[in-house]
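User: Reviewer 2 asked us to show a designed sequence for the structure in our supplementary figure. I'm pasting the structure tokens here. Could you produce the per-position amino acids so we can include them in the response letter?
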């Protein structure tokens, strides 16, 4: 589908048979048309930027259309409205981050796997800042539902398989792996939200400290942890 055909008008002078100047007639020059796929990508890019800056509620279809140089019906034609555009943007960001984390888990040593997972999240925050802002702005990690909570659960599932093998090898109950996976991924995610704005210390140092806490906590793990306070239930 070709959209929004635009033309530029200029004039060209004609001459009569005896060489004298004649009348001027307009000459129309066509600009390159934007295909439906190109327009869709343009709207997604604009929506992504606005959602990151203003959030879902603060962004309007009118503003998206205006920045794209199209009418509101064009946005509705491609996405059915703001909700549809937002859903596609969020889905892309979630898949991008999840693929990055999953693809990073290549090392054999558990501690290096932790480092790779931490770096994958921090790399995403650094390279796709707008995307991460969208994921955490409207669905804080503290919520039990929503895009970011769902994403954390998906990443934890990947980590859970690794922890389950390690737990079994060390004589721990592998059924507890999901709990520890959620704890570890949640720790990294919350730290990532904080680092999103402060950007200090440097990424490698943040990763090192995250792994330091996680690894040495796991290294001294008790098979049957006990509570030392007065509360027991």
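Assistant: Here is a per-position design you can include in the supplement:
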């Amino acid at each position: 589908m070709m959209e929004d055909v635009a033309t530029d008008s200029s004039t060209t002078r004609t001459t009569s048979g005896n060489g004298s100047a004649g009348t001027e007639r307009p000459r129309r020059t066509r600009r390159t048309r934007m295909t439906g796929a190109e327009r869709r990508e343009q709207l997604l890019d604009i929506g992504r930027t606005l959602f990151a800056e203003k959030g879902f509620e603060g962004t309007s279809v009118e503003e998206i259309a205006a920045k794209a140089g199209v009418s509101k019906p064009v946005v509705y034609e491609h996405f059915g409205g703001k909700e549809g555009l937002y859903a596609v943007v969020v889905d892309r960001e979630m898949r991008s981050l999840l693929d990055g984390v999953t693809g990073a888990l290549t090392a054999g040593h558990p501690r290096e796997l932790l480092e790779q997972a931490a770096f994958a999240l921090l790399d995403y925050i650094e390279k796709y800042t707008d995307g991460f802002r969208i994921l955490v702005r409207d669905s804080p990690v503290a919520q039990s539902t929503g895009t970011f909570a769902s994403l954390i659960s998906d990443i934890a599932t990947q980590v859970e398989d690794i922890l389950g093998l390690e737990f079994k090898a060390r004589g721990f109950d592998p059924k507890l792996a999901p709990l520890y996976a959620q704890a570890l991924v949640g720790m990294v995610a919350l730290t990532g939200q904080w680092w999103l704005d402060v950007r200090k210390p440097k990424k490698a140092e943040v990763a090192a400290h995250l792994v330091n806490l996680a690894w040495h906590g796991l290294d001294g793990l008790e098979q049957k942890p006990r509570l030392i306070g007065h509360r027991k239930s």
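For the response letter, you might also mention the following. The beta strands are 2-3, 7-15, 21-30, 34-35. The two ends are 64 Å apart (CA to CA).
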